[in-house]
Amino acid sequence: MITLRPKPKPKLAEVPILRRKDLTPDIMLVWLERPENFTFKPGQYCTIGRDGVERAYSIVSAPHEEDLELFIELVPLPDGVLTPKLWELKPGDTVSIRPRAKGIFTMDPSLPDQFLVSTVTGVVPYVSFIRDYVHNGRVGHRFFILHGASYHDEFTYDEELGAIAAERPDLLTFVPSISRPDESRNEGWQGETGRVNTVVEKYLEKFELTPDDTLVYACGHPGMIEDVKARLLPKGYRVEEERFWKED
User: What's the pTM?
Assistant: First the structure.
């Protein structure tokens, strides 16, 4: 008789918060010390925790970067369980992290045109894609990032992506869109307006992209993803998706 022993659970590491940057009352960036031998692919996520509560967060950093950068949105109680705990932390405090990154929402290089749609924190995998692509000097692809948010101060990576787009227009086109242009918080906004899923067809046509050469990614709010799929799947586009639920 063979006795099967349960596999031991992977040992959690405790890592310190190195830096924290609050962008709005409910959005922050944090940089964690990267555990030794922690590897990941652009687009994958890490699982962190505090006081025994764990959640998964896509990694902003590219694999060559020394620290782990995370873009976190606060989900208040009672829906939020971990993020209210994270909001109490400061540099030097620690969080747990599982030893392996996971996730299959990674770049598929099979098509030359990469059309990347996101809402708020959903842009995270795309930032990792771009940082890694530029760092490794890769060529042969064009990236088109459409990033939607309610308010312009939620974009977070607009300066970084805008600078790359200005320097490398052959590589990256970046289009941020706000859904509440009439609110005072967005006063002075001169860019695109409307929910990001409602402008995808406009920009596919503007950029002269076709299903034969274009892979569509949708990351963020499930409602956005479903609408993008409803619009583009009947037209022959392939859509890769990663859902970020508005709960903790």
Answer: 0.94
